[in-house]
From TrEMBL:
Keywords on record: Membrane, Transmembrane, Transmembrane helix
TM region positions: 275-297, 422-443, 455-480, 492-517
Protein name stated in the entry: DUF2207 domain-containing protein
Superkingdom, taxonomy of origin: Bacteria
Residue ranges constituting the DUF2207 domain according to the UniProt record: 60-250
Predicted membrane protein YciQ-like C-terminal domain span: 309-585
Keyword Transport listed: no
Keyword Cytoplasm: no
Lineage, broadest ranks: Bacteria, Fusobacteriati, Fusobacteriota, Fusobacteriia, Fusobacteriales
Species annotation: Leptotrichia wadei (strain F0279)
InterPro entries given in the database record: DUF2207, YciQ-like_C
Amino acid sequence: MLWKRRKKFQKLNFNLFKWIFRRGIVMKSFNKQKLNNIFSIIFVFFTLFFLNTKSLIAEKITNYDVTVQINKNGTLTVNEVIDYEFDGAAKHGIYRDIPLRSKKNGVDIYKSYIKMNSIKRNGLSEEYSTKNFNEGVRYRIGSADRFVENGVNRYEFNYVIYNAVFEKDGIYQVYFNAIGQFWKVPIEKAAVNIKFGNGKPVTENEISKLDIFTGEYGQSGKDYIENLNNGTIEIKTNKVLQSYNGLSFRLNLKTDNISPTFLDKLQTLYYAHPLLAAGPAIIIFLVIYGFVTWYIFGRDVGKKAIVPEFNIPKDISAMYAAYIKGVREPKEILTIGVLSLLSKGYVEADDKKGDGKNVKYTLSDSKRSKPELAEEEKIVFNALSDTENIFKNEKSLYKASNKILKLFENEYKRKVYRDNSIFNVAFIIGIVIVFIISTNANSGTEGLADNNFEVAYLVMIGCVFGIILNRVFLVLKNIYGNKSTFLKIVKWLVVLFMSAIYGVLNFIIIGIIMAMYTVYSKVIGRYTADGMRKKECLDGMKMYIKTAEANQIMKFNDVDELIAYFKGILPYAVALGVKNEAIKLMKNTIKLYNFDESTYSYINRGVHFNTYDSFILANTVSRVYNNAYNKIREERFSTLRNDSGSSSGFGGGGFSSGGGFSGGGSGGGGGGSW
């Protein structure tokens, strides 16, 4: 039994060993396969890593030469020669970013202008396009339709920079970022040569100070060698400039080789800050234009001295007199119209208490002969109601007032006054030019945009905005009317808002032009011969009412003649703004005749004194007009709502005296391939 148990145990051990042995072989085979997979993954990863690293570092600039020529007119002519080495990847060319402005607290503290003379590749002119960005301009060299050759390609940029030379106390300073800090590739060698544009040498005596800085933006490295050789300042790097490293210099010169004239300074000012130069010029031109055109076309000629006139004009109604003197408010025109009908007997006033507070106005049913009405007076008469309340037809009175204003406008322009509004166009053109200059000023280059797509985009945006704005004005015009002061204010506010978008200077200049336009549009008009006669007649009547003394007051044969005169003249007094003076004149005239108290009452009733002595009639007409206006406006709003519901629908600038750094000054930037 013991032997059997031992043999059974040995068999179990053998089977266990056999299982473990087989399991070990399987595990060994599995681990070997897994290890091979891991090595394969690592091999592929490192292969891709080294290939990708090669593609990153293969592209480089083998040589970067910059010649900075300081011109007598205060500009810089810069020539860059860049030997750019491409790797095996297909590329269209390179791009070059050049900063043109520097801001502090959102305000431009430095702004330059670049004029690109030429761009070449391997000695031949190369196609390029420009695109403006927030602080400068990008030149993209090459064509999207073809690729450049692999290896080294030589690119040459030649351009002029305005507003890069500054003067203070007789010292001229050039603070220039010759090798930009934003190249994405390393630069093996770089050299900067500085000389005068007139061929004269730069001498040691002329150099007040020369600071040079290398490294990343903001650093002040000294990885360079500098030498004055045959009148040229030579600066060379003594180590490779890694990507995003560059070189700047700050040169102070006391020399006669830089001497910009006034015109040179004006040209630089225009290029760097076009609106600062052109804005005052536009304003001065418009002032001269305004004076000359006013003197020739707007100045009143043949104007006679005003003499007192006590006769009532036969061919000018009181309403038209108000219009000629500048009244454009419909409610005032209506009130004067009712007073005219009252004075001519077409409307009667019943003032039972005699205090003027409860006057009842009705249409006259008298068959007596009455003076003939002017056309505008007939319009008011036909709008009045024949019921107890003559102002019941509120909408009719509202429409009558607008009809009269339209009638006056046509008659006034045709016979009385030439507004010469065609001459106002110069001021509109001036505003448009300011907008164009402001738009162009943001580019800092020769043109608004060399990219046709950008031009088309700006035009499209302008058209869409114009259509929307026109639609808004049409809606407002439909609600408030074309002559609405509110609509005019909205138009001017839109223009001012648009000008503010382009900056404070644009806002100020356009604001000045708009103020000039407002004044000019008032004085450029001129009265016709007939219009001048009418104006002189009304001015004479106004003078008589205001200045008549006892010995100048018109004499009357009887009381009825006095009543008839003042009944006729009082509506004109209201139209001319001298109602109180007319009432005073009437009282003084009555005193001359020493009438008794009953005669006073008779005269007051005859001329409807209480109507003129209070504002009740004017307030009534104003309330009627406002009620009609609000109703009509609400109807128009409702119509519009219904129609809407149913329809579908880089660096710093200026004269620097503090610590400099790599990337300081004008120029600089960087680039890469594309």
